[in-house]
Design a protein that fits this description.
Layout lengths: L1 H21 L5 H17 L3 H8 L1 H4 L3 H18 L1 H29 L5
Length: 116
């Protein structure tokens, strides 16, 4: 059943994104920002971790999880290091994913001819 719920939750997130594109005519940047903020708010309310427990990859793969990770890391480090932990926690939790995206983007640009 975990695969079913991952598909349903991940699909629902994608449907919401498509509605934002088609109905509200939002551009991709605005839509991504809305998803990151929604994930951050859901984590701040304590609702995103139970969603990940329920849906697995259906909730941990979409961009909403990035907002969740930002808040989650900031809160963990703030408990240990105070206000400076808010800033360092954001970078600590998300640095691996951002670094990987940059590295793979550069490799892709080297291997394939970018259209300019």
């Amino acid at each position: 059943m975990i695969f079913f719920w991952a598909f349903v939750v991940g699909g629902t997130i994608c449907v919401i994104g498509q509605i934002l594109f088609d109905v509200f005519k939002l551009n991709p940047g605005v839509t991504l920002t809305i998803f990151v903020i929604a994930g951050a708010i859901l984590d701040g309310l304590g609702l995103y971790d139970p969603l990940i427990d329920f849906a697995g990859a259906g909730a941990s793969v979409p961009i909403t999880n990035f907002g969740n990770q930002l808040v989650h890391g900031a809160m963990q480090e703030a408990e240990q290091h105070g206000i400076i932990g808010v800033v360092t926690g954001i970078f600590e939790v998300t640095s691996a994913g951002i670094s990987a995206a940059i590295i793979f983007g550069v490799i892709g640009a080297i291997i394939f001819k970018p259209k300019g």
